[in-house]
Specification:
alpha/beta, four-stranded parallel β-sheet
């Protein structure tokens, strides 16, 4: 667990720059004209809620030689409320999932996959995240093989007596930074229906958390952009 206050105090971000970038992103998403690199760019209001991503390019980092990093961080405001979640549940959790209108699968449903890799891959692709009952989580590798792990979607544990809605919100609010073979990273930190302060907080905490994972902290970050799904990227760190 990382103290978010500590993350903010060690920040190298320019608050004014981020504030201005968020203003432009929100104006563009409302169909207003904004200035990008000295030129007028006309925005367009979309028929869906655009996600706002934090895009990162790293430097002084060798993915082959340096230790690969990985870390998760729970943002104060859910960046993607429409994330598709599936509960792999015991009778109690399946019943609760049905009550709150969330997709669910029982052990018997998983057995029907017959360990077919193609079917499991399709299942993993259908959802953004999975949660599993504490009584079942150990059975998942046996029933599904490494499919969910390979997809980076191994289920989050649901403890007995836990509030399912709270657990789902927690999963939706959690971002993951994982270094693979490339020097670029991308995480969802908000959406255009959120208010500006909430986006600002999420962007700042996510960037600072990433810096805390890196060997040389901010010295390993080359550039940071924030970008809505359909909008132009806005550089917020140079």
């Amino acid at each position: 667990f990382v103290d978010s206050r500590a993350l903010v105090t060690m920040s190298k971000l320019n608050a004014e720059l981020i504030s201005g970038a968020i203003d432009k992103i929100l104006e563009y998403s409302e169909g207003k004209t904004i200035q990008v690199d000295g030129k007028d760019v006309k925005g367009k209001k979309r028929k869906f809620v655009e996600t706002i991503d934090l895009q990162i390019a790293l430097k002084n980092y060798d993915p082959q030689r340096d230790k690969r990093f990985s870390g998760t961080f729970k943002l104060p405001v859910v960046p993607r409320p429409n994330l598709k979640v599936c509960i792999i549940g015991n009778a109690v959790h399946c019943e609760e999932a049905e009550r709150i209108n969330v997709d669910k699968m029982s052990v018997d449903d998983l057995k029907k996959f017959n360990k077919n890799k193609k079917v499991i891959k399709k299942f993993a692709k259908k959802f953004d995240a999975f949660l599993a009952s504490d009584t079942l989580i150990k059975q998942i590798p046996r029933l599904l093989g490494p499919g969910l792990t390979k997809a980076g979607k191994f289920p989050t544990l649901i403890e007995a007596g836990a509030d399912l809605t709270e657990k789902i919100d927690g999963v939706k609010a959690t971002i993951k930074f994982q270094m693979k073979k490339v020097m670029c990273l991308n995480v969802a930190v908000g959406n255009v229906s959120m208010d500006k302060d909430a986006i600002n907080t999420n962007v700042t905490l996510a960037a600072n958390f990433l810096a805390s994972l890196l060997k040389k902290n901010w010295q390993n970050i080359k550039v940071l952009y924030i970008k809505s799904t359909m909008g132009p990227p806005m550089q917020v760190f140079f």
